[in-house]
Amino acid sequence: MSMYSGLSPVDGKDIQNTFSQSGLLVMYHASGLKVTASVTDKPFAVTIDESSRDAAGTLEAAGTGTVGIVGLGGVQYIRSMAISGAKQGLRLYVSQTADTDGYVDDSSANSATFVGVYMGEDGIDIATGDLIPVMCATIVA
């Protein structure tokens, strides 16, 4: 199974957050790439790995590090909040919880930005932090 839909990854060079894992939603900001942190943020990509590390093995700081990203298109694996009994086609949005910046959730509260629909196994329980397959909206408005 292909994890990232055959889209070519891009080296995101101007990061403004450290990205601790793959599957995080990435948004544009005038100062550089950031992880989504508000329900109304507009993601355009997802991380395919954590951000770069320095010689000591520490995640590099904002402004110096890089991160591999791929655009939101087709089916992408994205980190999720806990969802009970997820059904195929469930609509997913930018998450509502500050502890899980960059995740998706099934809550549309507070005008949350629509990301796509769940395309995984029908009727399963998803734990917080699981990578789940999401058929992404090509342009997140």
Question: Which keywords apply here?
Answer:
141 residues; mainly beta; Virus Head Decoration Protein, Chain: A; five-stranded antiparallel sheet; globular
Q: What would you say this structure looks like, in words?
A:
The protein has 141 residues and is mostly beta strands. The protein has a single domain (1-141), classed as Beta Barrel (Virus Head Decoration Protein, Chain: A). The chain has no helices and twelve strands. It starts with 9 loop residues before the first strand and ends in a 5-residue tail after the last strand.
Low-confidence segments: none
Structural class: mainly beta
Shape: globular
Query: Termini distance?
Result: 29 Å
CATH class label:
Mainly Beta
Helix content: under 10%
Q: Tell me which oligomeric state these chains represent.
A: single chain
Q: How large is the share of residues in beta strands?
A: 25-35%
Sum this structure up briefly.
The protein has 141 residues and is mainly beta.
Topology:
Layout: E1 10-12, E2 25-27, E3 34-35, E4 43-47, E5 67-71, E6 75-79, E7 83-86, E8 91-94, E9 104-105, E10 114-118, E11 124-126, E12 131-136
Antiparallel strand pairs: 1-5, 2-3, 2-4, 4-5, 6-12, 7-11, 8-9, 8-10, 10-12
